[in-house]
Design a protein that fits this description.
This protein is mainly α. α2 packs across α5 and α3 packs antiparallel against α5.
Length: 114
């Protein structure tokens, strides 16, 4: 489960890039959005532990997985609109960052604190 969640954004980015190239002629737009997305992922890496302290690990991880499922099934719906596509890519980047932050908690609970 951790492996699938951590590779989600990598494969979705490739799929969306290919699919969006069929819909959008402006490749600079896709490159600019793709350039900003890792920054939001880094913000999510720092923000996810704060969310986890407030609502708990299970709710944070479940919310992340539900968001990833939602994003998986809406890729073809958002590609027609530049605004929706931008928000979708930003959310994908944030789920990737959150996954990397939460993996430490998952592996710590599986293998122990050391």
């Amino acid at each position: 489960m951790v492996f699938l969640a951590s590779t989600f954004f990598y494969f979705m980015r490739l799929n969306l890039g290919q699919y969006a190239n069929f819909v959008h002629e402006d490749t600079a737009f896709l490159a600019n959005v793709g350039f900003v997305s890792p920054f939001l992922g880094a913000c999510a890496v720092m923000g996810s532990p704060f969310i986890m302290q407030v609502v708990g690990f299970q709710w944070t991880y479940m919310g992340l997985l539900v968001l990833q499922c939602f994003l998986s099934f809406t890729m073809t719906l958002v590609s027609g609109s530049s605004t929706a596509l931008t928000v979708w890519i930003f959310l994908c980047g944030m789920t990737e960052g959150s996954t990397y932050a939460l993996i430490l908690t998952v592996t710590g609970s599986i293998y122990g604190p050391e």
